[in-house]
Specification:
About 3% of the residues have low confidence. The chain folds into 2 domains: 103 residues, Thiolase/Chalcone synthase (Peroxisomal Thiolase, Chain A, domain 1); 79 residues, no CATH class. Strands 2-1-3 form a 3-stranded parallel beta sheet, with helices on both faces. It is mainly alpha-helical and 258 residues long. Strand 1, helix 2 and strand 2 form a beta-alpha-beta unit.
C-alpha cells in the first residue's frame, strides 16, 4: 500500500468578512489563485498526472456553486481535470485531504489536489443553505424547542441556558423522550450543549480561546508564513479591480454615446 505525502501547501491571508482586503474576490477565483501558488512549488509536476481536484466548501452555493472544483480546474487551464466539490461544513477541506489520502492508498492514482475555500463576504450572492422553505418540516418541533430554550437563556443570562435541548438544567438527549433532535441547530448552541455535557466551564472556554488566538497570531509570521500566498492573492485582487474599473469605464462610454 502506497504512502501518501503532502508535497506542497498554500493558503490565502486571513480576511475579514465584508470588510477585509479579500472581500471582492470570488471564491472560485480565490481557489484557483491559491491552488496555482501550491502547484508553482512543484514545477516538475506534469499537470496531466493529476487525477482529481477535490474541493471542500462549507456552503457550496451562489458564487461557490456549479461544482466549483471543476470550475477551478478550468480556470487553471486544466480542462482535462475532473473535480468534486463537497461539504462537511467547517471540516470540508479536512475531508478532501482524507479522500485524497485514501485514493492514493487504494491505488486510484498518485497525484491529487485537495483544497478548501469559504468566502463569507460573497454569501450575499447566495449559498447552499440560503433558500427559504427548504428545511424539512419534520424538524419544526425540534426547532421550536431550540428557540424556546434560547429565549430562556437570554432571559436568565446563563451559559447553561443556551443548551438547545435542556434549558438551564443542562443538555438532555431528545431521543430519550422519543423526539427528533434539531438537525438545524446553530453551531454556537451545539458548542454549548457539548460544554454542558462534558462539564466545561465558560472560564475554561475563554482560556482556550485566548490561547488559540495568541498561537494563531504567532503563526501568521511564523509557521503559516511559508504557506501564505499573500502576493498571489493581492495580484488576483488587482486583476478583479482592474476588470471592474474597465467595465465601469466601458459602461460610461456607452452611456455617453447614447
Amino acid at each position: 500500500m502506497a504512502d501518501a505525502v503532502i508535497v506542497a501547501a498554500a493558503r490565502s491571508p486571513i480576511g475579514r468578512a465584508f470588510k477585509g482586503s479579500l472581500k471582492d474576490l470570488r471564491p472560485d477565483n480565490l481557489t484557483a489563485t491559491i491552488v496555482r501558488a501550491a502547484l508553482d512549488q512543484v514545477p516538475q509536476l506534469d499537470p496531466s498526472d493529476v487525477e482529481d481536484l477535490m474541493l471542500g466548501c462549507g456552503l457550496p452555493g451562489g458564487e461557490a456553486g456549479f461544482n466549483m472544483a471543476r470550475v477551478t480546474a478550468v480556470l487553471l487551464g486544466y480542462d482535462h481535470l475532473p473535480g468534486t466539490t463537497l461539504t462537511r461544513y467547517c471540516a470540508s477541506s479536512l475531508q478532501t485531504t482524507r479522500m485524497a489520502m485514501h485514493a492514493i492508498k487504494a491505488g486510484e492514482g498518485q497525484v491529487f489536489i485537495s483544497a478548501g475555500v469559504e468566502t463569507v463576504s460573497r454569501h450575499v450572492k447566495g449559498s447552499s443553505d440560503s433558500l427559504p422553505d427548504t428545511m424539512n418540516p419534520l424538524f419544526d418541533d425540534a426547532q421550536a424547542r431550540t428557540a424556546a430554550n434560547a429565549a430562556v437563556a437570554l432571559e436568565q443570562e446563563t451559559v447553561e441556558g443556551l443548551a438547545a435541548e435542556g434549558g438551564a438544567g443542562g443538555w438532555h438527549d431528545p431521543r430519550d423522550d422519543g423526539l427528533l433532535p434539531d438537525a438545524y441547530i446553530a453551531m454556537g448552541q451545539t458548542a454549548e450543549n457539548v460544554a454542558a455535557l462534558r462539564g466545561i466551564s465558560r472560564a475554561e472556554q475563554d482560556e482556550f480561546a485566548v490561547r488559540s488566538q495568541n498561537l494563531a497570531e504567532q503563526a501568521i509570521n511564523g509557521f503559516f508564513a511559508r504557506e501564505t500566498a499573500a502576493a498571489q492573492a493581492a495580484a488576483a485582487l488587482r486583476d478583479v479591480r482592474e476588470q471592474a474599473a474597465a467595465a465601469q469605464a466601458a459602461a460610461r462610454e456607452q452611456a455617453a454615446a447614447t
